Amino acid sequence: MDxxxxxxxxxxxxxRISQLDAFELDRALEQLIWSQFAQCFQCFKPGLxxxxxxxxRAFLQFLLWRFTIYSQxxxxxxxxxxxxxxxxxxxxxxxxxMSKRQKLWxxxxxxxxxxxxxxxxxxxxxxxxxxxxxxxxxxxxxxxxLLRVAGLLNFLIFLQKGRFATFPERLLGIRAVFCxxxxxxxxxxxxxxxxLLWHGFAEFFIFLLxxxxxxxxxxIVSSWFLPxxxxxxxxxxxxxxxxxxxxxxxWPTMPHIIGCKHVFCYYCIQSNYLSDADFTCPKCSTEIxxxxxxxxxxxxxx
Length: 302
Description:
By secondary structure, the protein is mostly helical. Helix content is about 55%, strand content about 5%. The protein has a two-stranded antiparallel sheet. Residues about 1-10, about 225-235 and about 295-300 have low confidence and may be disordered.
């Protein structure tokens, strides 16, 4: 299989997003393996793995490195995306796998660096300022700062050039390439545009709906189809409306009016007005100016 892949004349460049996705997949896999490993000890004494957690994480990462980078020249995330590492120090366009030295140095940077970062506080704490180990701490801190600055500069170059996503890759001369030539993909953007459009509308409506006073909107729409402008206080129609509360629809209990032709239960109108100061009549959209009892009309009905 390697001989067949080595016969490839050209190597297709890997997209930047594919390389970054591979790192995210690798981090997710490491976290999943650690969580599964920690669950094996959940019935034991709490904090059993705390003191040796950096070493256990390094051991699990070493096992991953042994069966991925060392044997297949690719991490799990890269294998899922059809990517592997190429020895970029070799001349020519044909694929050449990583050398053994590059693999070992990769493990030292990837595994040893993480272990030292997690264990540095325990190694250098409780030491006298005059001790050699305490002075060595400042050297490690200075080197770590330089590596972070170098990693930042390397990432900016990666965004421009699309090669060597991490500083160890550039330092070791290993580059991500596709395992097999990628065919030309005919991407249809109609479905993508439609999904993005509906997703945008959905987010817009989710943001907008809580801001809409649906009760007031319902009252306005109802007033268009149920006009009550022909009713007057002095033609007896108010007595007809006294038979029904404009809110609950039942016989009004302790009927009150708010200045329109409709009658309300005292508890209905008072509770709605206390909860919403802008509450209006659900029948004609009249604003509440004053809540007054309707004693005379009740006597007329009786």
